[in-house]
Amino acid sequence: MSRILHPFPGGLRLDTYKELSDREVSEQQSLPERVILPLQQHIGIPAEPVVKTGDKVLKGQIIARASGYVCVPIHASTSGKVIDIGNYPVPHPSELKAPCIVIEADGEDQWFDIQPTNDYISVDPKQLQAVIRECGIIGLGGAGFPAHVKLQEGVENAVDTLIINGVECEPYITCDDRLIQEKAHYIVAGTRMIQHAVQAKQCVIAVEDDMPAAFQALEKWIDEDIELVKVPTCYPAGGEKQLIQVITGKEVPSGGLPIHVGIVMHNVATAAAVYRAVTRGEPIVSRYVTITGIVERPRNLQVLLGTSVKDCVANCGFEDYQNCDIILGGPMMGMQVTNPDIPIIKTTNCILIKKHQPRPPEMPCIRCGECVRVCPVKLLPQQLYWHAKTDDFDAAQSFHLFDCIECGLCSYVCPSNIPLVQYYRYAKSKIADEERRHRGADFSRARFLAKNERMRQQIREETTVEISLTEEATENEESLEDKKAYIEAAVERTKQKREQADTDE
Amino acid sequence: MLKLSRKPVALFLNDGSVIVTALLFAFTISPFAPWWVILIGIFFAVVIAKHLYGGLGFNPFNPAMAGFVFVLLCFPSQMNVWPAAPGISEIKPDISTYIAMIFQTGSLEKNTIDAISGASPLNDMKSQLSLMAMVSEIDESPIYGNFAGKGWEVINIALLAGGIFMLLAGIIRWHIPVAVLTGLFMTSLFFYAIDAETYASPVFHLCAGGTMLAAFFIATDPVTAPATPRGRLVYGFMIGMTAYIIRNWGGYPDGFAFAVLIANSAAPIISYYTVPKVVGENVS
Questions:
Q1: Which of A253, A365, A379 sits opposite B283 (nearest CB)?
Q2: Beta strands in A330-447 (DSSP E)
Q3: pTM of the predicted model, to two decimals?
Q4: A273 φ, ψ to 5°?
Q5: CB-facing half-sphere around the CA of B255: CA atoms within 13 A
């Protein structure tokens, strides 16, 4: 069936530079000497280690367990010995260190005893979710949201359409394209498994129209149950909300999730990972990474998680980092780091090496409106900028700051070279921080009021006990009337005595 | 001024915005205006209307128009001396005449000045209409060419070509020019349809005076225009309509400068009421 595609607002056709890295077949990156595995490679809370220094582990063995709902376990990506659990540099623009488990490889690369889930169609969808979670699967498109959460929401609400996102819209990156061309059957099979897990009525796999080889590769494996769609090349067509708009014409509610319009979306790599998890019990231990830019041999590598960026880039013929920028991700949404000794994690899709270009100076905003023109969410980046600059966070939120997908198009077109996305991230983090403090304050207040109530209750109880004790005592000895009579008699006697004393004087 | 406001001087001098202001100002004033009128106008435009508000990007009013209006109001007689249309008088002014007029060297006789200056077509149209002449009669005067004033219509068509070039090159966007011309055209068409003899034709209005200059070069100043696309359409339409109203019933022959300034002051509220619906805002 042919599906009518819809446009999404804004967007821009960018130069893609994909030919650089898409010419060769991907290569397996050689086994590193050691792997550094951060405990947090996903959105949510960090995992908790279940091994100690000195433990021997096998490939695919759980080394850190999920410590909450929005969390997935971490697995060893090769066999060896745990030599340290501590803070190491991780892929983050702040260049701060974070808790990691370091494994020294023993060279054997021996697998753990992994168990497949046989005949998944007969399996309860909830069980599939558990398998997917236990294999540490997260959104491999770059965001890193734990996959089982999306699957859970999918089962509890009615899912109309499952969309598998192969629309690699960011320039330079070709890892998904390569994965589709080389492992199309994994993706199609994985799609069917996810469809069973969320009980979706329709299934769509989408690729960009500048990925003809990937399209053909998928065509061979799909059947009547899955629809293959080619989407016009336009950045950011691969964004979750944008792709939903293109394929279904529906808009995800502002501040809401795709499930609210009955759609679940997963990346092609996530689908392939689900296939591996269900048919072999294999957790995520490696991924496709594009190494491109000014390296000698730009191409895609299949890299074990925890391998250092430096090793991968050296494999592509680049070692001198003088005057070069290292970007993890693409040129639009990637993060810049200065230290190449950081590990590849589940969400690292590309390493882009560029010649260092000094940033042109930031000029004042001339209100040209080019940013408004390209915004795919129809925001007013200009107004968000002004309000973020003056720390007017309420006004920024009234302009839907949190609907910004941080695609970077506004900064790209700004003639005054204003780093707009950075301003929005600043505002978002400030607002999130304030909300955390408010929640903390609310919690403290609630505790304080509860304590007061408790104290009051305690005093009330004690008083009641005393009163009842006193009443009991009174009842046991005399009645109230007798007491009164006794008191009156006593008062009379005292009076008489006084009168007598007076007359005596 | 840049030094006074502690901004990097070289960076801002090189952004070229003051050259744009100067060019637009030069385009709008009469070529016969004396040098000191030019100087005062530019001073007002750049120092007062731009830098005192905070410099590039912070001025609420279009600096070129603010400067133009300032000297128009302060020195009306110097500002209203326009060259006569070609072919009207035997004396053809050459470059030395212009220099003499601008620098007021006093070598020109009064006869010469009278001979080479004349009413601009808009001015003429306005004064003749107020004398109850009919448009078809007025049109017969030699200062009018095929569409509008001789000479002026060529300028306007040339500016239109320049404007279209800028549109195609992506330097400006279509919203404001189209809205300005539509505003002017629709309003003048409305009145022309009512009475073709009392109100000049829409084509005349589109080709006369500062129409094309204002539509493509002046109103499109991004700093003073609203931020939203729909807001820009409203803004442009307002400029076109107000310019027509001032041309017909106001005290000045060409209303664009005032129209632009009035619309500048309305830009913030237009922005406020035309915020586009964010993707996902209408969905529950």
A1: A253
A2: 335-337, 350-355
A3: 0.82
A4: -65, -35
A5: 22
Contact A44, A71 (CB under 8 A): yes
Kindly identify which residue of chain B lies nearest to residue A366, measuring between CA atoms.
B57
H or E stretch including A57? strand A56-57
pLDDT digits over A229-239, tens only?
Answer: 999 999 999 99
Q: Is the pLDDT of residue A188 over 90?
A: yes
Here the tokens at position B82 are: 């326009």
Interface test with A, best of B61, B272, B278, B283 (most A CBs within 10 A): B278
With beta carbons less than 8 A apart as the criterion, state whether A159 and A259 touch: yes
Helix/strand/coil for A470: helix
Q: A164 - beta bridge partners?
A: A205, A266
Q: In what order do the strands lie in the sheet with A34-38?
A: A34-38, A97-105, A80-89, A56-57
Helix, strand, coil shares of chain A, percent, nearest 5, are 40, 20, 40
The answer to whether B36 and B103 have CB atoms below 8 angstroms apart is: no
pLDDT tens digits, one per residue of A382-440 = 999 999 999 999 999 999 999 999 999 999 999 999 999 999 999 999 999 999 999 99
Contact call for B275 and A8, based on CB within 8 A: no
For residues B208 and A106, what is the distance between their CA atoms, to the nearest angstrom?
A: 86
Dihedral angle, C-alpha A352, A10, A42, A159, nearest 10 °? -140
DSSP conformational letter for A54: T
Q: Given 3-state DSSP classes, what are the helix, strand and coil percentages for chain B, each rounded to the nearest 5?
A: 60, 0, 35
**Rounded CA separation B269/B235 (Å):** 10
E strand segments, A237-332: 263-267, 286-293, 299-304, 324-328
Nearest to B56 among A261, A366, A383 (CB): A366
**Residue A484 carries which side chain, given as an amino acid letter?**
K
Contact A8 B283 (CB under 8 A): no
| ipTM tops the 0.85 cut | no
List the one residue out of A82, A60, A59, A195 whose CA is nearest residue A136: A60
Consecutive 10-residue averages of pLDDT for chain B (284 residues): 75 82 87 86 92 89 92 85 64 68 60 64 72 70 66 81 90 92 92 82 81 90 91 94 89 85 94 88 69
Q: Are the C-beta atoms of residues A264 and A38 closer than 8 Å to each other?
A: no
Query: What's the order of all strands across the beta sheet hosting A227-231?
Result: A227-231, A202-208, A161-166, A263-267
